[in-house]
Amino acid sequence: MFRRHWRADETATRGLQFQGGPRLLRLIEWLVRRPWWYGSERILPIIQLSRPPAAAHDPFDGLQEWLRKGRFAPWARTGESLAARPPSRGSGPSAQPAAPTVEDLTDVAVKNLASESRTGRRLRFPHYGLALWLLHLEPFKPDTPDREREKIAEQLQIHLRQRLDSTPLLEGLADAVGDFPWWVRVTSRVVPRLGLRFMRSTWRPPRWFAQHRVASNRDFYQLARDFARPGYVAAHRDEADKLLVDAFLQDLRVAYRRTGVFGAGRRRTTYPILLVEDDGPAATTLIRLIEQIGREPRGRPRPRPRREYLLVITNPVQDAAPGDAHAPADARMAYEAWADRQLRNGADQAAVLPLRLPVETAQPGDWERLGEVGLPRRRVPWMSTALPVLLVTALFVVPWYNHDRCESAWRPPIGGTLRREPFGADGSQCIGVSDGRYRFFAGAPDTDTGSWLREVEDEIGAVNAEVIKNPNHVTVVYLSTLTNTTIGGDPAALEELRGLAAAQWNSRTAGAPIRLLLANGGDQMNHGGQAARLIAGAAKRLRVVAVTGLGVSRQGTKDAMHVLNAANIPTLGTLLTADTLTSEVVSYHQVSPSNSREAAVAAYYAREKLHVTEAAVYYSGDEADLYSGNLADDVQKAFSARGIKVREVEAYRPPNGTTGADVTSLGRRACPGKTGYLVFFAGRPDEFDDFLGGMSVCSQRYPTVLAGDAITQFALSGQGDDYPGLPLDYISLASSRVWGSDCATINKSVRFFTAYSERGYGDACANGQSSRAMFGWDAIQTVNAAIVQVRTVNAGEAITPQSLLQGLNALTGTHAVPGVTGTIDFSYRGDDPQLPANKTVLIMRAGEGDDSTLRLQCGAIPGARKPDPGCPSDVTD
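Given the sequence above, the corresponding structure tokens read:
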């Protein structure tokens, strides 16, 4: 950005009044304006303004006027004419001043660059000051090493007190180079002999000198000894000059680096400019050293573009400009071409950008065009404020954001597969998939069930750590309701997780072992779609080939299935039974039977075993519940087909619902019991207790109650004991009772029960019969069987979601899975090939406590008792 006008002095700017002069100024302004992005720095050349001998005016005068008035960048002008020293004391009146040296030129540059400026903090040159101290050590010949140390320490102490006053340097240079750190000054004055050692061990500049090529891998003290030898500096003048110039450039590197959060380099928005009058051998040497050091900092080759924080401009008078020199009017394009060569060739490319100045023409309008260039404005170092503000903000925002992502407070806020959502009245739940860092049950209640949930999650994590060592492992995500408000929700989740964990552990040595990750769809799968999107987003990174579980038959489950199907991830339901799910997406399969098969078995049992002639059906009025209403409809149709009169099909009002009757009043309305009368409850366990409470008005004459599979956990938990005399039958999808009552034999002969016991989960045969655990086991077994089918076709093929889906479709006939919940054979000849054909459905009679007896078995279970004759079949020949 430029101010509107520059009132350029006509005489001072005469050297810039030529065609292309304004473009030259614009190039300089653009070069010194530092990119705001921290990872970007400008490649700064040594601009050579080649003047013809006929040129009467120096362009540096105009540049100096422009820089002085603009005050947008630190700058200095040096040269032999500006650095000439007066004759030394004691010389005669005719004595000539000493010829300026490289040191004299850099002294002028340092003093001017370090002067007070509006462009940020003042530049300081401690490396340069230390180099001056080395060059001006008083030569001596020590008698002993101890005397040598004392002499050097004495000179350091004098230097600290006088700050360069003992050396013939320019006035004010000591203030320009800066002071030694206070701890070095204090130590050197209190314990002089330790001062030098303490300085080189606690201050960066001495360590930099020790790493310099001049030091030849020696420490700073040894370097100081060399410089203190008589005649050393004179004999090594070239190396001394190079060390001095390199120290000068190192101070600029340190001042402009932006690695520190609160460093001054972040606030420096313009590069310094050094105008070098090319008027003698010292100036030529200085320019050569700056170019050479820019190529090889610290003496090491640098095969990358020049990276020095200093724009050098020279003004040699030459009869003929270099052949590759360009006119100032093409300065920007010439620089772009030079920078491209630097990026390609690095150290092999010259650092000089030659520009050929024309003979001054003094054409009308040249002066006016210079004024139109304007004076550059200093860019506000907003990043110096923005970054600390961002960091301070991050101290609050990052922990809050990571809390929302269910991550640790200071984890980088990128990616993430979890999101926090409200849960209950004032709690929260984490939705999505965990790669193992987050534990869903870490905050579970301090009860037996809560403790067991934490244990099984830890065990799954331990097996995962073992499995991922196999490069052929695959990842299966278990998506379910890991946060529950339903009655028996946590015990049900525990049993299913134990079945999954036992199956994973049992197959951990397979050719393609399973890494099992847990995912939460929220209470009642209300956030199933969101969880599925998080799974799909991380599927490639986590190597997910399938998702199993899927919680309960609700709208959130359907949403999850559609999201995962769109991501080409196959899904395998464990205990889902709603008829509509298998028709939603082609990538979905399920281990459990459908509601229509449950209804057919229930109708057969009611008519043929209980001789029912009349029934009433009650279900949940929750519109998001895909299971309850669908089961009630299927039961009504199946009962009617069996000649059972359905006198009432009524929905009850769920909690927070608006439609349906009061569930307690429906329980009362179901009374009294009579011969041939059955009450079928197709609702959820949360309201079943209230329903039975209403039915207790006819406790002397209870009707027979048959409930859907959702009531299994209610019955096994012994809650039916509160209603003595109630004949309660319920549909169960798995039970150890199909193998008999000899648990000792069952635990030895059936692998599921053996592995379940070996994992320390207890006796699955006697302990509640663990029907959910069996479905968790069968889900993993089904995935393993699908992997076997993929490997059978192509042993070397990597398991992908697409190939696993093909493997699931191949589980038919002789390739069916001999599950503990029944044969899993996807050869159903109806409209739903994703359903297992003739899947086992049981009718159980609830007893005292967790004891239940088997009343009916429809569907074969390998190794178990034969199914009852006459059961309905869903396979038509």
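The radius of gyration is 44 Å. Try to locate this feature in the token string yourself.
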